[in-house]
Amino acid sequence: MSLAFIKSCIAQDMQAVDAVIRKSLHSDVVLINQVAEYIINGGGKRLRPALVLLSAGAFGEVNARHHELAAVVEFIHTATLLHDDVVDESAMRRGRATANTLFGNAASVLVGDFIYSRAFQMMVGVESMRVMEVLAEATNIIAEGEVLQLLNVHDADITDEAYLKVIHYKTAKLFEAATRLGAIICAASEQDEQAMAEYGMRLGTAFQLIDDVLDFSGDSQEIGKNLGDDLAEGKPTLPLLIAMRLGTTAQAQTIRKAIEEGGLDELPAVMQAVHETGALDQVRAIARQEAKAGCDAIQHLPDSPSRQALLKLAEFAVDRTF
């Protein structure tokens, strides 16, 4: 299923969101404009703002408040990317040099702070305490997820549950907030709001699990980053944890060494191990289960183009190659 087809359902609203993004990013400080424009223009799937719009469309009319919130969600995501790339010392994202590579770490961190604070200025304008509550909680939990991930680096003994907690905090929480916001602004029932939030959390989890798979099986040009980036940083992702359990003693030792020491010296052997043990297939299967659970949560909603697009988006999340 093509992401372009899914986005065609909300093309006009996405143009309105882009207009809000451009207007809201403006600053009298030239460096802020340069860095912000660079990362916003850097492509990306724009999934999170799309989720706000599709969620809203499942309950009624999409309006200007949804456009504002879709932009807010994209700003929160963008700020985390700027900070992430500094923490991870990343050199490439979406097939281009990262902002910290071009502008330096200090500029990336400070402009990330600007984008965060601009997001909170915008959400105040929506004049909904419930919206503020959801986004404040999401931003806080994302930060906790970042710290949890930092604590897990070079730890080959973490459990699957501990790793999934990082995914839920760091990635899936913003997906959940995006789908919840669409429902809130449309005054959906509490049951429907919870159903949409469940969909978002499950979709975000599936999405990150496939990212983990693509780190060992994707095409670096297509996914826009170097293969083995997570391994190089010593991050113990789920494919590695499963491969350590299923592989030979030698394979387990190789993966453990790669996690504990970081770097890419062991990448060929690790790649062979995750393929031979079937770890990637297992992670894909878990991602499919998550996506299905998300779809099941919204099956009771009335049929609409937006609901259909949400169901198709779950298919895309697990079948994608980028």
Automatic annotation (TrEMBL):
Q: What is this protein called?
A: Octaprenyl diphosphate synthase
Q: Does the keyword Transmembrane helix apply?
A: no
Its family remark reads:
Belongs to the FPP/GGPP synthase family.
Fetch the Gene3D superfamilies from UniProt.
Farnesyl Diphosphate Synthase (1.10.600.10)
The EC code for this enzyme is 2.5.1.90
Q: What reaction does this enzyme carry out catalytically?
A: 5 isopentenyl diphosphate + (2E,6E)-farnesyl diphosphate = all-trans-octaprenyl diphosphate + 5 diphosphate
Which Gene Ontology molecular-function terms are recorded?
all-trans-octaprenyl-diphosphate synthase activity; metal ion binding
Q: A single Pfam family, by name?
A: polyprenyl_synt
